[in-house]
C-alpha cells in the first residue's frame, strides 16, 4: 500500500504536468470527453463502495451527484466568485484558481455526504430490492426538489455565471484527474485494510458480521456517506467543468448507467468499475462514425460482456502492477 | 450466583401467540462446558438468539459477567465477550480464510480515518493483526487453508473455521449451534476432541447445542434438556439420560412405558 501511495503521488505530479501540456495537444472536444470520463470514473467507483464492497444495492446515486453539483455551483456563484476575485488580486491567476477550486469540491462532497446520511439512515434498514427502490425514490426526490428551487435556476438550469475577469469554470484535465486519483486512493485504503474487511463482511453475511462484533448498521451508513461524498465531488467537478448544470443530467437513467459501470466492471473491484466507466463513456463517442447504429452497438457491447464475463470485467479482483508481476508465481503455487 | 459467567433468569420469548422459550433458567460457570439438547423446535437456537441479542427476551433477565445484557445489540454483546457459530454455517464465503478471522479480529474496533491516513505504526499494527490471525489458524489446524476462499473448504473444515472466527473475537463464552450437524461418526469424534481442546487451551466457557445425548456424553459437564420451550431436565449427562421426562420427550409417551 505504501507503493500505492507513492504511485498516487507520482500520478498527481504527472497530472499536474499534464495540466500544462494537455491543452496544447487536445482539442476541446477531446478535453470535454476526458472530463466526462473522469467524472464517470469517480461516480462509478464511489458507487462500487456501496454496491460492490458493502453489498447494499443502491440505484439512486445520481441524486448525490446532483446535490454535489448544485451545492458547489451555488457556493461558487453566490460566494465563491467574490472569493476568487479577492484571491486573484493577491495571487497570480493560476495559483488563485488552484487555491480556490478545492473549496467548491469539498462543499459539494460535504453537502452530498450530508444528504447521504439523511437518506442512508432510514433506507439502510431495508434490504435487497426494497433498498434499491428506496434509493431510486430518494434519488428522484432529490432531483425534483432541486428542480423546484428557484435560487439555483429551477427548470432553466443553473449557469455558473460570474463577474467579468472571474471564470468559475474549471476544465483542466490534469487537476481533475488528480482529484479522481486521490479520491480513489482514499476509497481503496478504506476498503483494503483490516478495518475495511468490515465492509466486505457485511456484504458476505450481515447476520454473521453483526455476531462477530461488527456494527453493521454503522458500517453500511459509513459506506453510504463516503460514497455520497465522492459522488458529490464528481458532481462538483462536472458542474465546474461544464459551467452549467441541469437536473436532467442526474435522472435515474444516469443512476442506472452508474450501476451498469459497477456491474460490468465487476462487483467489488474499483479498477473494474473505473475501466467500465471510462470505456462505456468513451464508447458512444468512439462509435459516433456509425451514425444511428451506435446505440445498438453500445447495447451489444454490454450484452456481450455479460455473456462472456458474467462476473464483470475484473470480477472482484483489482488490476494492479503487483498482481501482474506476481501472476506466474501464483500460478506455480496453485499447481504445487 | 456470583461465580457464574452467564445467568438466564426465567427468560421467556414469545412470538405473537407462540411461546418459543418459557421461563428458562440456566447458569454457566467460567470454563464450564454445558450442552443444550432437545428435539427439533424445542427452543435451543432461540435461547442462543436471546443470549446473543438477536431477540430481546419478552420477560426475564440475561446476565453476563454481572451485567444485564438482555436486549443489547448483537455486536455489543459480542464485544462484551460472547461469540457464536450458526446452525447453518454462516462464513464470509467470498473472503479468504485468513480474512474471515481478521474480520472478526478487528471488525469491531476499526478506524476508517486511520486506515486512510496510514500514519506511523499503522503498518506494524496491521502486521500484528495478520500475525494473530495466522497464529489462531495454526492453533486450530487451519493454517494451510489461510489463502483459500472460505467456501472452498471441506464441510468439516468450514465448521472449524467458524469456530476459529468466533474465537478471534476474544470471547469468554462460546456458543456452538449444532457443531456436529451433518457429520459422520468419525468426524463427530474428531469434533469432540476439538471442542475439548478449545475449552482447555482458551480457558473459556462453552455452551453447545445438539440433538443427541451420545455426542455430548463424555464431553460436557452438564446437560440441559429443552422441550417445547421448557427446561425439562438438567444435570450430569449420565443422570439426564435416565430421566423419564427426557426419554418421553425423545421417544414419546409410549416409548417411556415400553
Description:
The complex is a heterodimer of chains A (about 325) and B (about 260). Chain A has 14 helices and two strands; from the N terminus they run ααααααβααααβαααα. By secondary structure, chain A is mostly helical. Chain A has a two-stranded antiparallel ribbon. With about 260 residues, chain B is an alpha/beta fold. Chain B is about 40% helix and about 25% strand. The radius of gyration of chain B is 19 Å and the shape is globular. Chain B starts with 5 loop residues before the first strand and ends with a helix. The interface of A and B includes residues 190, 193, 194, 204 and 211 of A.
SS strand fraction of chain A: under 5%
Written as H for each helix and E for each strand, in order along the chain, the element string of chain B is EEEHEEHEHHHHEHEHEEHH
Q: What's the total count of β strands of chain A?
A: 2
Q: Pick out the low-confidence regions of chain A.
A: 327-336
The dominant shape of chain A is: globular
Quaternary assembly: heterodimer
Give the N-to-C terminal Cα separation of chain B.
Answer: 40 Å
Sequence of secondary-structure elements of chain A = HHHHHHEHHHHEHHHH
Give the termini separation of chain A: 28 Å
Number of helices of chain B: 10
Question: Compute the gyration radius of chain A: what is it?
Answer: 20 Å
Quick structural overview:
The complex is a heterodimer of chains A (336) and B (258). Chain A is mainly alpha-helical and 336 residues long. Chain A is built from 14 helices and two strands; from the N terminus they run ααααααβααααβαααα.
SSE inventory with pairings:
The complex is a heterodimer of chains A (336) and B (258).
Chain A: H1 2-25, H2 28-53, H3 61-90, H4 93-100, H5 102-123, H6 128-147, E1 158-159, H7 173-191, H8 197-204, H9 206-211, H10 216-242, E2 244-245, H11 252-265, H12 270-286, H13 294-308, H14 321-335
Antiparallel strand pairs in A: 1-2
Helix pairs in contact in A: 1-7, 2-7, 2-10, 2-11, 2-12, 3-4, 3-5, 3-6, 3-10, 5-10, 7-10, 11-12
Chain B: E1 6-15, E2 18-28, E3 33-37, H1 44-51, E4 59-64, E5 67-68, H2 74-80, E6 82-84, H3 97-106, H4 112-117, H5 122-139, H6 155-168, E7 173-177, H7 185-202, E8 205-210, H8 213-216, E9 222-227, E10 230-235, H9 237-241, H10 244-257
Parallel strand pairs in B: 3-8, 3-9, 6-7, 7-8
Antiparallel strand pairs in B: 1-2, 1-4, 4-5, 9-10
Helix pairs in contact in B: 3-5, 3-6
Amino acid at each position: 500500500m505504501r507503493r500505492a501511495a507513492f504511485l498516487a503521488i507520482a500520478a498527481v505530479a504527472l497530472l499536474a504536468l499534464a495540466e500544462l501540456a494537455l491543452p496544447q495537444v487536445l482539442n476541446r472536444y477531446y478535453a470535454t470527453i476526458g472530463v466526462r470520463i473522469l467524472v464517470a470514473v469517480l461516480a462509478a467507483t464511489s458507487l462500487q463502495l456501496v454496491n460492490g464492497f458493502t453489498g447494499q444495492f443502491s440505484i439512486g446515486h445520481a441524486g448525490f451527484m446532483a446535490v454535489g453539483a448544485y451545492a458547489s455551483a451555488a457556493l461558487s456563484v453566490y460566494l465563491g466568485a467574490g472569493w476568487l476575485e479577492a484571491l486573484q488580486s493577491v495571487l497570480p491567476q493560476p495559483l488563485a484558481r488552484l487555491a480556490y477550486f478545492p473549496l467548491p469540491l469539498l462543499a459539494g462532497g460535504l453537502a452530498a455526504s450530508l444528504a447521504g446520511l439523511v437518506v442512508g439512515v432510514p433506507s439502510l434498514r431495508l434490504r435487497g430490492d426494497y433498498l434499491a427502490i428506496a434509493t431510486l425514490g430518494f434519488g428522484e426526490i432529490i432531483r425534483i426538489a432541486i428542480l423546484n428551487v428557484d435560487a439555483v435556476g429551477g427548470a432553466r438550469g443553473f449557469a455558473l455565471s460570474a463577474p467579468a475577469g472571474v471564470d468559475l469554470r474549471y476544465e483542466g484535465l490534469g487537476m481533475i484527474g488528480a482529484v479522481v486519483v486521490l479520491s480513489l486512493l482514499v476509497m481503496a485504503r478504506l476498503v483494503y485494510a483490516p478495518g475495511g474487511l468490515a465492509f466486505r463482511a457485511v456484504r458476505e453475511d450481515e447476520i454473521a458480521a453483526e455476531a462477530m462484533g461488527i456494527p453493521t448498521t454503522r458500517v453500511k451508513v459509513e459506506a453510504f456517506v463516503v460514497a455520497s461524498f465522492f459522488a458529490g465531488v464528481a458532481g462538483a467537478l462536472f458542474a465546474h467543468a461544464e459551467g452549467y448544470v441541469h437536473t436532467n443530467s442526474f435522472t435515474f437513467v444516469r443512476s442506472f448507467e452508474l450501476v451498469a459501470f459497477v456491474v460490468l466492471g465487476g462487483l467489488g473491484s474499483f479498477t473494474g468499475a473505473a475501466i467500465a466507466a471510462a470505456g462505456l463513456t468513451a464508447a458512444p463517442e468512439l462509435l459516433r462514425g456509425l451514425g444511428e447504429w451506435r446505440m445498438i452497438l453500445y447495447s451489444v457491447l454490454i450484452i456481450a460482456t455479460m455473456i462472456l464475463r458474467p462476473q464483470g470485467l475484473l470480477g472482484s479482483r483489482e488490476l494492479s502492477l503487483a498482481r501482474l508481476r506476481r501472476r506466474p508465481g501464483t500460478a506455480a503455487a496453485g499447481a504445487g | 450466583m456470583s461465580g457464574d459467567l452467564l445467568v438466564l433468569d426465567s427468560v421467556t420469548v414469545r412470538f405473537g401467540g407462540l411461546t418459543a422459550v418459557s421461563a428458562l433458567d440456566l447458569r454457566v460457570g467460567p470454563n464450564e462446558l454445558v450442552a443444550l439438547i432437545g428435539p427439533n423446535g424445542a427452543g435451543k437456537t432461540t435461547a442462543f438468539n436471546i443470549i446473543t441479542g438477536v431477540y430481546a427476551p419478552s420477560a426475564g433477565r440475561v446476565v453476563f459477567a454481572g451485567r444485564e445484557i438482555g436486549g443489547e445489540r448483537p455486536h455489543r454483546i459480542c464485544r462484551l465477550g460472547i461469540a457464536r457459530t450458526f446452525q447453518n454455517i454462516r462464513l464470509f464465503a467470498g473472503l479468504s480464510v485468513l480474512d474471515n478471522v481478521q474480520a472478526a479480529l478487528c471488525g469491531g474496533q476499526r478506524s476508517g480515518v486511520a486506515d486512510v491516513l496510514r500514519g506511523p505504526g499503522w503498518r506494524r499494527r496491521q502486521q500484528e493483526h495478520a500475525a494473530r490471525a495466522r497464529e489462531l489458524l495454526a492453533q486450530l489446524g487451519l493454517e494451510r487453508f489461510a489463502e483459500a476462499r472460505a467456501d472452498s473448504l471441506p464441510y468439516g473444515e468450514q465448521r472449524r473455521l467458524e469456530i476459529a472466527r468466533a474465537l478471534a473475537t476474544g470471547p469468554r463464552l462460546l456458543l456452538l449451534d449444532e457443531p456436529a450437524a451433518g457429520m459422520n461418526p468419525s468426524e463427530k469424534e474428531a469434533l469432540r476432541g476439538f471442542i475439548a481442546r478449545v475449552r482447555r487451551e482458551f480457558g473459556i466457557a462453552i455452551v453447545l447445542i445438539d440433538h443427541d445425548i451420545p455426542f455430548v456424553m463424555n464431553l460436557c459437564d452438564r446437560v440441559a434438556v429443552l422441550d417445547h420451550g421448557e427446561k425439562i431436565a438438567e444435570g450430569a449427562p449420565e443422570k439426564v439420560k435416565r430421566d423419564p421426562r427426557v426419554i418421553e420427550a425423545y421417544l414419546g409417551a409410549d416409548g417411556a412405558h415400553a
